[in-house]
Amino acid sequence: MMGNQPVIILKEGTQRTKGRGAQSNNILAAKAVADAVRSTLGPKGMDKMLVDSMGDVVITNDGATILKEIEVQHPAAKMIIEISKTQESEVGDGTTSSVVLAGALLAKAEELIEDVHPTLITQGYRLASQKALEILNGIAITVKADDAETLKRIARTSMASKGASVHSDVLADVTVKAVTSVAEKNANGTYTVDKDSIKIEKKTGGAVQETELIKGVVLDKERAHSRMPQSVRNAKIALVNAALEIKKTEVEANIEITDPSQLQAFLDEEERTLRRFVDQVKGTGATVLFTQKGVDDLAQHFLAKEGVYAVKSVSEKDMKKLAKATGAKIVSNLKDLTKDDLGQAGLVEERKIGDDNLTFVVDCPTAKSVTILIRGGTEHVIDEVERTLDDAIGVVGTALKDGKIVAGGGAPEIEVALGLRKYAATVGGREQLAIEAFADAVEVIPRTLAENAGLDAINVLVDLRQAHEKGQKTAGINLDNGKVENMQKNNVVEPLRVKTQALQSATEVATMILRIDDVIAAKEFKAPAGGEGGDGDF
Ligand code: ADP
Ligand code: MG
Most CB contacts within 10 A, which of 221, 322, 456, 497? Predict the structure, then answer.
């Protein structure tokens, strides 16, 4: 630039920010996202009410949900939101923590940037993150798959910060039963948990305590005809993706009928076709039929007469769950349906839940499939229960798979900070400063937990550090009284992976953002022709 003729390589209207400008801009955006969710962290965190452009309201404390609903523009802010999604899909919990941690790592880096080059900061951060993982692994506690009590404590800890936590006893119980009943033991002794085997069905009405686990599949569908049996024992189940209807002609066709007997013949033919469909089903020995398509009134009548329980318009997702649970094969052409395609269930039954009739497919012999039927007074309540269960299923599943947990309430973060400060001294140089900054950043978790509980964060941190110096590795904060206590004894436990994943992805995104010193943004599609050809900074 300095007096030389600039060579223009970018398209007109491209926005470009360079150097410190770009860095502080990105850091600012990332910190703003972290600040947006910070006040929700922990059991004493506040809720947020989100109103979308359609006026729909969501009240939640769930970091991932909040970040999903708010629309951000800034690319660095989007990167931060991305880690909450990773956290959600990898472990199901710790979303707020990961974002808050990333924000803190960047804030601390910003303080250092005057003295330490960003490359050295990122190097220091990487070393610190590796060391932190080691420390976390060192304090992990083993949990056994049959230790239902500990698994329930893990579920309850993840629920502590949710609105539905008042019902955490019932919900933790349902969660642990659901996860353990679908868990499969591998040859090497580890467990696999397929979250898709747990179906969540919601029905307003009743109380949250009435939320229950059903060993089988529950469909929000009633039987097609009231004269069909209301319950079928030892059901032989057919799953078809075919309509039991006469195909409507594509073009409008007129059939000229000149004689009343012709009309009768025409109707008879229709009836015969439908009859054939039903005979086809009945011929296989099926006593229950689920179809993704429709069923003609007359076919319904025939099925009812044959004593077949039929459900129409079942969603594809539910069909797959049914296939898994009953061992049936989904057949797309009715003609191809045979005895071998049928699945089984001890009982298929219609039950009235609230004002609606639901179909229960239970006592399935072949596969592990369960449904959690959520009850609650209003739509908002059951939605928050669903999010709560989703997190809880995630953490219990993770704990079962990994078999490792840590105490929560700020204990692991203080332990990591303490270990990192010792480690920093051995590294020396500028990187030492970065590792120390990392240690300070990690303490954002206990600090925020305390702040959100209305406690004096500085005092709490001093007490926590003291306890950990004395070797009390599970010392965390009792948020009710501000005292430092043994979190494991207080039953505040979380999967190890919630912590390691949050730390890893926060470090990754923070270092990625720190290394950016040039932002080149293409002209926005709808923006007025703006690029006035200045020297870059906007
Ligand atoms: P995230 O989205 O990160 O899971 P949460 O709002 O669920 O955020 O808060 C999680 C934090 O709250 C964890 O650090 C956890 O250890 C802490 N926590 C949960 N229950 C308690 C409790 N009873 N006492 C102290 N800390 C708790
Ligand atoms: Mg949580």
Answer: 322
